[in-house]
């Protein structure tokens, strides 16, 4: 990857629906070159997917929570991870170092809905303890970080 690939990624990061012709004008490359570079980044796995970002409140999810989870033993990691992948309100999950094994992000309708999800998590085999944090306000929510030109 070179600086032009990073420029393309930064443009797509802001708007993944931007046309190759518009990108080509912005970075002064031919449309075919832009398309070729995007396809290379897709096939190499640099670009994993294109998605949408919804306004959680407008789709009915008025509560976001972060939950730390400890398991009794590492043998439960795989089955726990599989179960977490199935739950539609768990929007991210991280395996951690430190006092807790996992950190999950939950987006749900209400505190009652969060309570149901919390009970479901506690019912999973191997879950020893949880610690829940309610998000008051989203300050920054980006989905990927790209090196700046100075870092290359």
Automatic annotation (TrEMBL):
Domain of life where this protein originates: Bacteria
SMART domains: HTH_ASNC
All copies of domain HTH asnC-type, residue ranges: 1-62
Keyword annotations of the record: DNA-binding, Transcription, Transcription regulation
Ribonucleoprotein as UniProt keyword: no
Record PANTHER family: LEUCINE-RESPONSIVE REGULATORY PROTEIN, TRANSCRIPTIONAL REGULATOR AZLB
Protein name from the UniProt record: Lrp/AsnC family transcriptional regulator
